Amino acid sequence: MITVKFPDGAAREFADGTTGATVAASVSKSLEKKAVAMRVDGALRDLADPLADGDAVEFVSRDSKDALPLIRHDAAHVMAEAVQELWPGTQVTIGPVIEDGFYYDFARDEPFSEEELRRIEQKMAEIIARGAAFTKEVWDREEAKRVFASKGEAYKVELIDAIPEGEDIRIYKQGQWFDLCRGPHMRSVADVGKAFKLTKVAGAYWRGDSRNPVLSRIYGTAWASQQDLDAYLTMIEEAEKRDHRKLGQEMDLYHFQSEAMGSVFWHPKGFMVWRQLEAYVRRRLDEDGYVEVKTPQLIDNKLWEQSGHWGKFRENMFVVPDEVPSTEEGKPVITGEGNLMAIKPMNCPGHVQIFKQGIKSYRDLPIRMAEFGCCHRNEPHGALHGLMRVRQMTQDDAHIFCTEEQITDETRRFLALFARVYGDVGMTDIAYKLATRPDQRAGDDATWDRAEKSLAEALTASGLDFEYAPGEGAFYGPKLEFHLTDAIGRTWQCGTYQLDYVLPERLEASYVGEDSARHRPVMLHRAVFGSFERFIGLAIEHYAGKLPLWLAPVQAVVATIVSDADDYAEEVAARLREAGLRVETDFRNEKINYKVREHSVKKVPVMFVVGKREAEDGTVSIRRLGAQGQKVIEASEAIAALAAESLPPDLKQTANA
Ligand SMILES: [Zn+2]
Ligand SMILES: [Zn+2]
Question: What residues are labeled active site?
Fold first, then answer.
């Protein structure tokens, strides 16, 4: 007999070799129906696995969040079977689960067409309707290689070779079809259900290596219910409409080009958004007791060695030899003999250098040192993604140098600033996490205990609910994570807050304490936006380009209906500019509807439309972006109202106070 433990603390006896499925059936009819897999001592397993004495078992029902990766993984197997049934001889390679879905890479000369995707979906539905059970077998390594080789599956043979000696070669069967797989799987292909869709195709190198052949990748998504699938597809459609790369072009904000991979060419309009944000944050920092500095871009590698970045972070750094390039024909430009310097990937070591100038006393702390620091990180070309992942970024960075006793207060202060800023930009759905000590870490446990406790206290004292992210802290200290949910339900991690005991030590920063002895300050790395690039990308997507008035690069366009109104429009525009607004005029000889459409594409929040009658009456007809109809009001009233409305949130608060 074996004893099996349940989550509620109960324990029951079963015959040796009893499977999870049998145990589920013994609990209740409904559990037998719902359970598609199980967790045994926390690890996800096949329901058909026999249990051992003392196992703690928890069943995974198909409608739980835990089942989603299984539904997707099983769907990937079904897709692979469908492809091979439709096009025998197509080799299958790997097919993992990814966020919100799955993919499978196939070796095939032609990429799959849209029409072929629909055929595969139909075939998948047929396979699911046949309902074959998933069964697991462990094969002999050589036998497995022979079987796959005989089917012409060269990639699978390579995959088997990559499995470490001594590990099982597991095969999952669904009817006649089988695949090399670590598992686990649900009971049968029927558990995949009907809520799946193949979304796109792409080329992908075998094992991600550009020297290898290109494979045909099919992406798909699968959900527990049709309702969930529909919601997801709607969200994707909405996300495409909001894509900052598309809107950035339509709104003429910035561009990229191949000569400067991953570095943004900000156009006047895009940089106007940046300037507004920067000016706003700078005011918030000033009022919060920060000092602002500027540190060098190019720093000798000796400092990076001392800071530890040279050892751990070097592959992400741009390194430059410190020598005069040769202009002589036929000679190499660089001999490589000069000292190496690196373009800064972060601002921290520079800030420590400023801290170390002169003797600091405990009375000087905390020092909150901010820099809108331009940093470069050598990201591979393939990893770059619009404004979200760049090689040149400007962080709204700051480091707080303080004593250990000041951590809680400083953290509270930062949390207040963080909430104020995100509230001001209209993003309020934020989840907080406290990332604690990782396995690989510097420092002793007592220090980690104190550090984690200070952060937890600050969160609690700030009245914030938070979750722990165990083991997710940085090497040198715990950190806070901020997970922002945007307007269409996607979550983004933004800002940073990391506690660091190591860098002050490595760079020998110290202050004189009340006891007249030297002490190490604690360093808090923090950023509210993270980088301007990424935050602007996020704001564009969150607002679908309709930025709040104070951030809009062009706040109003004065457009004429007839050329008779040109002089009057010019006068209205001049008065708007005088009132501090960013204004353009549109006197083109085009129909007004055409002008309205064009400025809506550019997401201009307000249009003042003027014709002959408005000119005579001294009025304007106001159209708001996205709103129907227009309102005619007296020009000076409209200008004053818009000027008040366009103030940045902090200035508006002062004006209203
Ligand atoms: Zn599998
Ligand atoms: Zn830092």
Answer: 348, 377, 395, 397, 399, 479, 525
